[in-house]
Amino acid sequence: MKNKKAETLEDAVSRIPNGATLLVGGFGQPGVPEVLIDGVCDLQRRGLTIVTNNAGTGHSGIARLIEEGCVGKLICSFPWAKESFVFKELHDAGRIELEIVPQGTLAERMRTAGAGLGGFLTPTGVGTDLAEGKETMNVDGKDYVLEKPLAGDFALIKAYRADPRGNLVYRKTARNFNPIMAMAAAHTIVEVEEDVAIDDLDPEVIVTPGVFVDTYYVTGWYEIGKERNAS
Amino acid sequence: MKNKKAETLEDAVSRIPNGATLLVGGFGQPGVPEVLIDGVCDLQRRGLTIVTNNAGTGHSGIARLIEEGCVGKLICSFPWAKESFVFKELHDAGRIELEIVPQGTLAERMRTAGAGLGGFLTPTGVGTDLAEGKETMNVDGKDYVLEKPLAGDFALIKAYRADPRGNLVYRKTARNFNPIMAMAAAHTIVEVEEDVAIDDLDPEVIVTPGVFVDTYYVTGWYEIGKERNAS
Amino acid sequence: MSDQQTNLLTRQQIAARAAQDMEDGWLVNLGIGMPTMIPAFIPAERDVMFHSENGLIGMGPPPAAGDEDQDLISAGKELVTMVPGGAYVHHTDSFAVARGGRLDCAVLGAFQVAANGDLCNWRLPNQTSGSVGGAMDIAAGSKRVFAMMTHTARDGAAKIVTERTYPLTAGGVVTRIFTDMAVISVTGDGLVLDEVAPGLTADEVQAVTDAPLIMDSVGTIAIAA
Amino acid sequence: MSDQQTNLLTRQQIAARAAQDMEDGWLVNLGIGMPTMIPAFIPAERDVMFHSENGLIGMGPPPAAGDEDQDLISAGKELVTMVPGGAYVHHTDSFAVARGGRLDCAVLGAFQVAANGDLCNWRLPNQTSGSVGGAMDIAAGSKRVFAMMTHTARDGAAKIVTERTYPLTAGGVVTRIFTDMAVISVTGDGLVLDEVAPGLTADEVQAVTDAPLIMDSVGTIAIAA
Fold it and tell me: Among positive and negative, which fits the CA dihedral A181, A130, A61, C78?
């Protein structure tokens, strides 16, 4: 069986090149793969496109990646939170591009990529600024916007447990975008709180089948935003 | 809390009118709501449209519904199995209409309805007979067929366990189309092997949230195709 | 003329009034801010479930001290709990619930609501960008959309208008408006003034409302003592 | 000329040869019929997982007597088992795996395969309808599609043709063909005859193949004793 477990953080992320598109999980703090993001920061890549719901908090995680100049473009639904001041500063300075996507459309565009589909028609955004430049179609008397798939070169996600096949389960609202991003990327890298033996995950309750997972790295439990022990 | 548990089979299905579109779960025998189907047979409705993967086996279940003249149209992926001789006989006699849909497209069309979307672009069927009359679009150099949502007036599905909210879990490959059909119908009726107390299902492992379920009926365990005890 | 300032409803009172409209058996999504105050005013015997678009069906109140779980938050990023019979889903399934017509109601804040039900709540006209979050999906998909807001802007400008001038969130979706002055229904005939705050007259409400209000039968908002 | 009849591979031998192409780490979908015989010929040390479109990732062999579970079947509706580390998914997720490029290979039966890789396996031309099942989705989505079939039809007609005359399942998808006479690769330059069954010549294979075969380096199919 292919060994999907990365022994070091560098092993987990080092294949990510300059200019890659990264799907980064999390909504608020739950489910943000903070350790993996730090690993990417350490690589000091340039011109990354980041797809994630928020635009970073304070100076850590996505905010650190942005602050260190690694990110050329951000695709997200909620960029202008107070805590995303680092993003705002770089965006105001014209140093980072922004694409705003409604949250449900963001999730669905990634699922569409993961499911091998070419697009979908959504009622979300019809008649709004965010539909500008997009095709609109009428189906059975109702207008829809045609949205295209959004795939990643890599997904960086967080899960609760992984088995050696890379099967994943999540914790509460830390699930959020993570299972969708796992489907939508060519390479999916996961940080997990703990790994378990094969057969320790009931096949009925697996949320992300291992077929969507390439690499996992065990971080142990940690609190986001707090100082971490060496992981 | 709304009581979703039907005490009798008739209570579970009697709202189904003539001419309704029914999404009926199951692939092979696993996950076929055989008891509910018998309940619908007993109503002797006419002109039903049935959406299901297969065209019935022997003289029971969907085959019985067809044989008793209740079905005006069948939408399925695999109509011509040897065991579906009842369907073949009525189809040859011009008494039942057939729409063949590729299996993945069938599932995705129902999900599209359930997700409030207006359609999707799929590579499945491009250039084939089954794409005739459908719009084809090119996205990033690849051709796709535009497929429309497929909604049901009712879904008849089978699950393993339900709690009073209608949250559902399934057993093995009896899951199949059932969770998707639950999403895609205006009214979802479930037969379950057993019901459990609120909080007996771990919220992490629920496959179908109760929001998609209107009515459940407890059948106990039975073997499809065998004589059942009064349920 | 009464003193409008003193007769305006508090945020709690608006939430309490909106809570009266939450019907037994409903699944409801609450926007950030004022709408999150609604659950506290729903009687315990009324079964209303809450959906949070980050993957919670059956969101409960904030946790008791010591019961906080950092992995259990609302879309507004507050720590919350899960009620018995709830379920966790991923983001795509969560928005399938929202867009698929499974929300009986969404209660959302608004910058502007037009007489035809157009909702504007994601971007101010003088801004080049906004934080849309899940607002467009939820507004487009819910069976009912309730707008909950102050009746006028801080500068006194009307927020309930004949035609919107703000960037659109979703067209023709608002079904009812709850403000610190009134409850207004959006109907095919236009805006109907259902209720005014105690101490206010219908004309006082119309005076600060750009769109014409139908005032055939205006009641008074009931406020608990 | 050798006696073709006696030199044709058995169904088991075709399956054994196809099994040699199943690479370590692959996820594979097997069509009904002959392809389901492949797993028995894969060495235990090679890690190949099987996907069954009815919601099984990690399909195992038929159950031992007494271990049958009526709720655990393959897409061909045979009783099967689940391997350690497998997962159950619903139909839409299962086809997301198939269409989304997560299948390293699908091995499917075929009525006809064209030189450009067109696959025809769902409906005969003289029939007005067919049972498509998941064939179109799986053929359209797999990284590789292997066609596995008798080299000719029962009436001797060629099944490997310059241009298809049968109804299309998926265009240009077949990458390799395994028959009772040969192993043939579909390439940008045309069909390449890689191997022939022991006792057969390349010319004998070409004689019953409508499409021209490139025969630069033809080996012999290795058959276990």
Answer: negative
Contact B161, B170 (CB under 8 A): no
For A186-222, write each residue's pLDDT tens digit.
999 999 999 999 999 999 999 999 999 999 999 999 9
- Whether A4 contacts A163, CB under 8 Å: no
The structure tokens listed for C188 are 């095919």
pLDDT digits (tens, 9 = 90+) for B102-127: 999 999 999 999 999 999 999 999 99
Beta strand extents in chain C (DSSP E only): 27-30, 49-52, 56-60, 81-88, 105-108, 112-114, 119-120, 145-148, 160-161, 174-178, 182-187, 190-196, 213-214, 219-220
Report whether D106 contacts D146 (CB < 8 A): yes
- Quote the CA–CA distance of C178 and C107 in Å, as a whole number: 9
Angle at B142 (CA atoms; ends B137, B146), nearest 5 degrees: 30
For residues C138 and C119, give the distance between their C-alpha atoms in angstroms, rounded to a whole number: 12
The partner residue sitting opposite A203, judged by closest CB among D82, D95, D96, is D82
D30, D51 in Cβ contact below 8 A?
no
Res. A230: pLDDT tops 80: no
Give me the mean pLDDT over the B132-158 stretch: 97
Which residue spans within A3-125 are E strands per DSSP?
21-24, 48-51, 71-76, 97-100, 119-122
| Residue A139 in contact with partner chain B when CB distance is under 8 A | yes
Q: Which candidate, B188, B45, B23, places its Cα nearest to that of B109?
A: B23
Residue C85: CB atoms within 10 Å: 24
Across the interface, do C140 and A81 touch by the CB < 8 Å criterion?
A: no
pLDDT of residue B227: 64
CA distance linking residue B73 with residue C207, whole number of Å: 59
Straight-line distance from the first to the last Cα atom of chain C, in angstroms, rounded to the nearest whole number: 24
pTM: 0.97
For the CA atoms of B41, B44, B47, B50, the dihedral, rounded to the nearest 10 degrees, stands at: -10
pLDDT of residue C2: 47
Contacts of A24 (CB under 8 A, 6+ apart): A32, A33, A37, A50, A51, A52, A62, A155, A156, A157, A181
d(Cα D145, Cα D185) in Å, to the nearest integer? Answer: 11
Cα–Cα dist A173/A178, whole Å? 10
Q: What pLDDT does residue D2 have?
A: 47
Task: Nearest by CB to B120, from A120, A170, A205: name it.
Answer: A120
- Which residue among the candidates D53, D78, D163, D204 is catalytic per the annotation? D53
As a whole number, mean pLDDT of residues A84-90 equals 97
| C88-99 pLDDT, tens digit each | 999 999 999 999
Candidates A160, A79, A204, A110; CA nearest to C72 is: A160
User: Which residues of C are the active-site residues?
Assistant: 53
- Could you tell me whether strands C174-178 and C182-187 are parallel, antiparallel, or unpaired per DSSP bridges? antiparallel
Alpha helices in chain C (DSSP H): 4-7, 11-20, 91-99, 135-141, 202-207
Taking the Cβ of residue A220 and every Cβ of chain B, the question of whether any pair is shorter than 8 Å is answered with no
> Per DSSP, what are the bridge partners of residue B168?
B162, B208
- The tokens of D62 are what? 């038929």
| CB contact B92 to A (< 8 Å) | no
Q: Is A108 within 8 Å of C90 when comparing Cβ atoms?
A: no
The CA distance from B91 to B73, in Å, is: 10
In 3D space, the residue among C90, C110, C103, C117 whose CA is nearest the CA of residue C191 turns out to be: C117
Euclidean distance between the first and the last CA atom of chain A, given in angstroms as a whole number: 26
Residues of B in contact with A121 (CB under 8 A): 117-120
Size of interface B-D (CB pairs under 8 A): 133
Q: What is the mean pLDDT of chain D?
A: 95
Amino acid in position D144: R
What residues of chain A have any CB closer than 8 angstroms to a CB in chain D? 1-2, 111, 113-117, 163-165, 167, 183, 198-199, 203-204, 206, 209-212
Question: Chain B partners of A169 at a C-beta cutoff of 8 Å?
Answer: 204
D78 catalytic per annotation:
no
